[in-house]
Automatic annotation (TrEMBL):
<dbReference type="GO" id="GO:0006730">
    <property type="term" value="P:one-carbon metabolic process"/>
</dbReference>
<dbReference type="InterPro" id="IPR020602">
    <property type="entry name" value="GTP_CycHdrlase_I_dom"/>
</dbReference>
<protein>
    <recommendedName>
        <fullName>GTP cyclohydrolase I</fullName>
        <ecNumber>3.5.4.16</ecNumber>
    </recommendedName>
</protein>
<dbReference type="GO" id="GO:0005737">
    <property type="term" value="C:cytoplasm"/>
</dbReference>
<keyword id="KW-0378">Hydrolase</keyword>
<dbReference type="InterPro" id="IPR043133">
    <property type="entry name" value="GTP-CH-I_C/QueF"/>
</dbReference>
<feature type="domain" description="GTP cyclohydrolase I">
    <location>
        <begin position="36"/>
        <end position="203"/>
    </location>
</feature>
<dbReference type="Pfam" id="PF01227">
    <property type="entry name" value="GTP_cyclohydroI"/>
</dbReference>
<keyword id="KW-0554">One-carbon metabolism</keyword>
<dbReference type="GO" id="GO:0008270">
    <property type="term" value="F:zinc ion binding"/>
</dbReference>
<dbReference type="InterPro" id="IPR043134">
    <property type="entry name" value="GTP-CH-I_N"/>
</dbReference>
<comment type="pathway">
    <text>Cofactor biosynthesis; 7,8-dihydroneopterin triphosphate biosynthesis; 7,8-dihydroneopterin triphosphate from GTP: step 1/1.</text>
</comment>
<dbReference type="GO" id="GO:0003934">
    <property type="term" value="F:GTP cyclohydrolase I activity"/>
</dbReference>
<dbReference type="InterPro" id="IPR001474">
    <property type="entry name" value="GTP_CycHdrlase_I"/>
</dbReference>
<dbReference type="GO" id="GO:0046654">
    <property type="term" value="P:tetrahydrofolate biosynthetic process"/>
</dbReference>
<dbReference type="GO" id="GO:0006729">
    <property type="term" value="P:tetrahydrobiopterin biosynthetic process"/>
</dbReference>
<dbReference type="GO" id="GO:0005525">
    <property type="term" value="F:GTP binding"/>
</dbReference>
Amino acid sequence: MALYTDEARENGQQKQRPVLHESKRVDYGALLRLGRELLQALGEDPDREGLRDTPRRWADSWREFIEYEPGVTDTCFSSVSTDQMVCVSGLRVYSMCEHHLMPFWCDVAIGYIAGDQVLGLSKFARIAHQFAHQLQLQERLGEQIADEVSRITGTPDVAVVLKGEHLCMVSRGIRTPGIMTSSVMRGVFRAESETRLEFLRLIGS
Ligand SMILES: Nc1nc2c(ncn2[C@@H]2O[C@H](COP(=O)(O)OP(=O)(O)OP(=O)(O)O)[C@@H](O)[C@H]2O)c(=O)[nH]1
Ligand SMILES: [Zn+2]
């Protein structure tokens, strides 16, 4: 994925939309068949009124989830002043637990120390959605967001905190509501407790 900077824009370069990777495509025909089989396995008649379109809706919702396109995630601008801590918080994303294939939501907070390039504000949410739209673990989601922000901005100083609620714990199994908090602290956020505390204060954690 090419870095799109304001310098590139001045030079008249076009934004390149990331191409959907082959592994992100679902087998839609197989999903339709499975949707029908799932209804049968549940003891239902897939041809009864009310269920007739359900395999199609189910296949559509998996396709929408897996084939999510984040759009351009790497627009950067020359920074007016370096060394600022930038935090973006309250980004609500929906993902799917890879153990139970049940949804979980996360409120994501991202911080980084800006170098000579700052990342466009909306790109943090695009990056968070990009990695949420796959079968996931909350801890891996945080690591992947941190990796991507670090790669695009070129800074090792990145922090990501996620607060999530997992339906697999709330609606089945132990059936207990609870919030899981996970955090990734890299660079100065790991090395300096003052910087870490400033970040946690700024995101209201
Ligand atoms: N650490 C972590 N655990 C998760 C996440 N999503 C689901 N889990 C847990 O994955 C575990 C799977 O445990 P198993 O014992 O294999 O499955 P199970 O019998 O369905 O377990 P219960 O959910 O306890 O009924 C459960 O404890 C889930 O709560 C996640 O994002 N991170
Ligand atoms: Zn689960």
